[in-house]
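LOG
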Amino acid sequence: MKKYMLLFGFFLLIACANKSEKAACASDASDKKKKNFEMYQMSEMALLMEQMYVDNQLLKERINKGDTIGKFPNHFLQIHKAVMTDESENDAFFDEQAALFIKSQELIYEDPKNAKEHFNNGVSACVRCHEVKCGGPIPKIKKLYIK
């Protein structure tokens, strides 16, 4: 008899837990209907930086393999014009770091014998800027360094 009572109590507990979860889910769903869903849109600068990251991953692979470097990607020059998420971040410090980054990138293509050094200098310019402006991507950026 005790076994049946324990079993009944167990099922009752599960049934109550399921009802409260369903009620919570239903109230969450009605709250979400009340709020307008907004899709996050990346700024021009964020999109550019994502593209530069991918380009530099591929460049890092070519440098490590000793492949030909190719041509400087001109879309990197948009770093001076791209609209930022927060326009107040576009200041003299940013301009200085962006110029260092671009110069390092150009040197990779102009002086491929020292591509690793120039590449790492470009990565360092990114890190220095992000230490001041937006620290979130620093761990990702540091993965670009060529050892």
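LOG (cont.) second protein
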Amino acid sequence: MRTALAAVLGCLLLLTGCSSLEGTGDKGFVTGDGTVRVVEAVDRGDPVDLRGEDLDGNPIDLADYRGKPVVVPVWGSWCGPCRAEAPDVVAAAEEIGDGAQFVGLNLRDQSTTSSQAFVRRFDVPYPSVFSPDGKAMLQFRGTIGPNSIPSFVVLDAEGRVAASILGPLPSTQTLVDLVSDVSAESASPGPGAGEQTTDG
């Protein structure tokens, strides 16, 4: 009877898919449905203060990239959806090019060995902050939850949260379009700027 009940519960977990806790061992995570949220400029909070070490042990600080949008993909090498979406994320980073800086946030990998293997396997072209305890996610509270893996945050040129995607990347174009919109903000002239193009 217990075996049958366990099988039924297992099937229910499989059916709930994205809303269930998944992972390996104690690495529970919640995968969202790819919902995109845009934050209007007037509603954005303070710049995100995220610093740490990359997968090679070098210091990394998001403040160093102010002046252009920053895309933060949240991932773990142990996360199945992260592996599935990796080619699309890499394609987005390559298409966007110098239009934004990508800085990954690598969570809950207990050593950089598996993280670095992930980077090599998918030819990831950008650095990642290594946060095995997941505490780096606290910088994004109110935007994405502590177990929201995978997810994405787009910061504006001032380092403020401008948009987020909760869950796997819906498509390469989704991320490209989000970054394009955020980039256009800083490229747009201020009020009245277009009125001084002639000498009267």
